[in-house]
Amino acid sequence: MQPTVNKQRIHLIDLIRGFALLGLPFVNVLGLWSDNVNLSGEHTDIIVQRFLFVFVEGRFFAIFSFLFGVGIYLFLSRAKAKHTNYQLIFIRRMAILFVIGFIHQLFQPGEALLFYAIIGIILLPFFKLPKQWNLVLGIIGIIVGSICSAKLLLPLPFMLLGLAFGQYHVFEKTMSYRKSWSFVLVVSFVATIIATVYLWMQAPSLGMTSYMDSFELTELQIDMNRAFFAFTEIALMLAPIFTLFYVSSLVIVEPFIGKLLTPLYAYGRMAFTNYLGQTVMLLLVLQFIVKDSIVSYSYATISCAIIVFLQIIFSTFWLKHFKYGPLEWLWRCGTYGEILSIKK
């Protein structure tokens, strides 16, 4: 079976995907290190918590979901042009993702790939719907999910929105949409400033304190935790504003400072490898460095930053010698049922 060849890779999508990937380990580390991170209420931890929940939590996950929708359109449209059985090829692709996601969730409960594979199959009929329908359905779904502060309701509408953007060829024709992107940037920038000030003021002064062995929370800490969870619901409700600002900013600045952002292109091209690699590296640090110790939230955050830095270096080096990331290559081989060339 002849694979679909991507002759005109959309580098802007790689850049945005790389940017989205930056924030994921900072959110996922608490789930992986839940028994070893002491949210003690220290000043540094409080600032880190507040920063991550204002600028990261739910924002980068939304970008990833949106780009997954764009990727579904690109894959299906290119496969359709070359294969009569393009739907079966896509289903096989999602089935492989499902299996990998199932294995991954054994180590990281709540991981995204399993969920994405299921939604990917659900989205298959939407590929044939008019782009206006997908656009409207995506926007309505995002609004409803945000108002409900329901994180699990947001991936599907964000993917629908990404599918619609693919149908409109927004990323192939960024110059044609430049005025629209500029308008979105200005509006979302103002909204982001307002949302940031509001969230920063609403954030509980003592942050969130975790339950540790042989450590009981005081009544004040329990009340602050409740306040913090209420704050996270508001933060999630406002997440699409930040997502819109991040994406529109990258679209506008990319033609001017694209060369400075070169490492993010490589990081985004190997998103599959790096996403799973983040879990592996966090677990290795937990197993061989943290061990049975109790570490601060700041320690965990710094560990994530180091992992991201190392992955960017590895991705840049790898793609100088190979066409695809290692897991991207395996996924591609499985999709088309043959061993494909990986060397440049």
UniProtKB/TrEMBL annotation:
Keywords: Membrane, Transmembrane, Transmembrane helix
Ranges annotated as spanning the membrane: 12-33, 53-76, 88-107, 113-129, 136-160, 180-201, 227-252, 272-290, 297-319
Superkingdom in the source lineage: Bacteria
PANTHER family reported for this sequence: HYPOTHETICAL MEMBRANE SPANNING PROTEIN, INNER MEMBRANE PROTEIN
Organism of derivation: Candidatus Pseudogracilibacillus intestinigallinarum
Descriptive protein name: DUF418 domain-containing protein
Record domain DUF418: where: 168-337
